[in-house]
Trk system potassium uptake protein TrkH (Alkaliphilus peptidifermentans DSM 18978), 896 residues
Amino acid sequence: MKNIDNIKLDPTQVLVLGFAAVILVGALLLNLPIASIDGKSIGFLNALFTSTSAVCVTGLVVVDTGTYWTAFGKTVILILIQVGGLGFMTMATLFAIILGRKISLKERLVIQQALNQNSLSGLVRFTQYILIGTFIIEGIGALILSFTFVPELGWSKGIAYSIFHSISAFCNAGFDIIGGGVSLMPYVTDPVVNFTVWALIILGGIGFSVIVEVANLRKFKKLSLHSKIVIFMTCLLLGIGFVSYLLLEWNNPNTIGDLSFGGKLMASTFQSITPRTAGFNTVDTSQLTTASKMLTIVLMYIGGSPASTAGGIKTVTMGVILFTVITEIKGREDTEIFGRRLTRNIVNRSLTIGVIGMAYIIISTMLLTITDSGFEFIEVFFEAASALGTVGLSLGITSELSALGRIVIIFSMFLGRLGPLTIAFALARQNRNSKGAIRYPEEKIIVG
Amino acid sequence: MKNIDNIKLDPTQVLVLGFAAVILVGALLLNLPIASIDGKSIGFLNALFTSTSAVCVTGLVVVDTGTYWTAFGKTVILILIQVGGLGFMTMATLFAIILGRKISLKERLVIQQALNQNSLSGLVRFTQYILIGTFIIEGIGALILSFTFVPELGWSKGIAYSIFHSISAFCNAGFDIIGGGVSLMPYVTDPVVNFTVWALIILGGIGFSVIVEVANLRKFKKLSLHSKIVIFMTCLLLGIGFVSYLLLEWNNPNTIGDLSFGGKLMASTFQSITPRTAGFNTVDTSQLTTASKMLTIVLMYIGGSPASTAGGIKTVTMGVILFTVITEIKGREDTEIFGRRLTRNIVNRSLTIGVIGMAYIIISTMLLTITDSGFEFIEVFFEAASALGTVGLSLGITSELSALGRIVIIFSMFLGRLGPLTIAFALARQNRNSKGAIRYPEEKIIVG
Ligand SMILES: [K+]
Ligand SMILES: [K+]
């Protein structure tokens, strides 16, 4: 008789099954009549959709979170977001450690035991460290947000709003309880909400290890290659997004055209940050110019940084592809970034993640044009990219999707959240022992 | 005083300037009042558009070729197509020889002098060989097509139609003189037209060296790696296209839904072949399902094979990317195709061409949404991909584009035709002398 202890799961299987289990529990809870304000069950497919969207920190919704769910329902969603966002970030960071990525200084001190001894106590302490850091950041975020929400909505509702949106922002979840499907549009020119949400989104989407390194080292030159690429690509994408949205939307009266100069700057900044897979919006996404929509699709595909709460193929993956192109144009054989050479493994892995991500968006877009033929092409293309990147922005079709279309989106959110990491991990593990010729100093980075 | 002989041009500069000169001469000729049936000049922008489309063998048209142009105008267009298609194929094949690609057997015998001695006479003889081969194939094509066109249209018109469409098909130009913008739709179930045009498109788009090799060797195993990849990828793309179009359009009454079973098979085959950048169509492209349109965009982006009359990033470029992904998933460090290892150079070069091509389609799509905001997104997306791939298929917006939109498309066609080859050549030249570690047998191939 086979002992159950003999069934060994590798870490990626644990991750996938663990997330599936949390999603299922969430769906069962949200399916309860007490979760809905009208006292009737929402039905399993919609409960599953909402639970998947929350655990995968996507933010696509088939019902308006603020007005449809009871306090119980909203609490379940908030817990699912926190478990999903935090759990994924922790697991991804642990994976990076397992893979032996170079970890530096303070980070190294904290997790040395986990690294060297692979002991349970070390891993537990490391996880505690991430947990505490997350709660501190989310707590500060909620505190600052309360300066806007409490005067406007009173103590109890104001505090609830502050906590919900702080967690949702840091976890890059994009769920809001403002009501009416307007996301953060009422606060398009509110500096408190803007600056706080920007900071939370960027911190959540940049990865735990980068935050620790930057907090301890402060100098760009001393950072690990991984952190350098993350910071460079994040700044590059934010810069391109900001300038492009400002120019493309300048005269659009349905988005930023009627705002003051400062309002235009603020709204364009928000718009450039949110495709780093946050999913909040302060202008009506469906009213963007077509060029802005296309740009948003590209930015959503790229997404945030590895081992963070963000989705997409990841900034580092795109950075490796970008630098390979630049190095190739310069006529060098090896991909070179910031004075370091990347192994062929990393380049091929990045290419693989990029190609699979793009193929999946194309195929799911085609499926959606068949299951939901009534929508415009860009609407389903945008929705498919948003789901795979776990972004949560939408041109407004989510609640009108057919049952089959919802199932496609559920799969996309799940694969979009777990796919790049598990692919990268599986590829990294099997490549781990292959030896390359030693030429210039090499440095490992996380992609996907 | 500087001697004019001292100004040295590298081969890519000769190619780019040569094509620009031919386009300009063509535009001046088509701008003449005697080129237009109404006796008035078409205007320089439209003449330039038509000349660029012909020389770059694209097939996008702002006026209906069959009804707008006089016999003089049509003759000019046909000459531009022949010069463009043949000139490019010859130049690209010569480039491949200059780069020292492994050439085999008969091919080697023919061009040995050009290869080893780099003598003018060798190159001239080689060029003659391509010229003769082209005229034989086009002549046979015209002869077979005349069995349909002569009975239908009488001797003089029938022969003119046969020659024009044979050349247009072999050069993957996509221009037709059927009239009324219907392309080959009247012949959707005509076996003579179908089989002949299929053969001409595939032969033109597969590359001269592959034709020579296959004709001489006949056995797949003995072919060069380049030919193996070309044949494999061509079959793969044709297979995917055929099955997908058949399924996606089966019930579409506006395309193949009302055809007999045989007609459905024939139309789906044609539809799968034409994005190999031919640009003819036997069903109304604008009536395809959205999923089929998306698939066509992907196939147009990939395009035909290197050193042929076809456009796109090329089958070999896509093949290298595809096999790198497969090899990476299998856990091998080197990209392996058909028992051969590819150098990192080739992989990086393919990645570079793929990324630049995609970036260009995205940027030109965004520009077109600004210059021509009245169209649907998929219409301009499709047009941008068609122009860059020099395909010539359109959802019907070409003649309605604004002046700025036409300029965008003119640039796209020019870059789409010369870009991948010149990029690949420039990259290949500078990488040529870099040494890689010798591990498994390597074999060079042409990408772009
Ligand atoms: K999100
Ligand atoms: K064409």
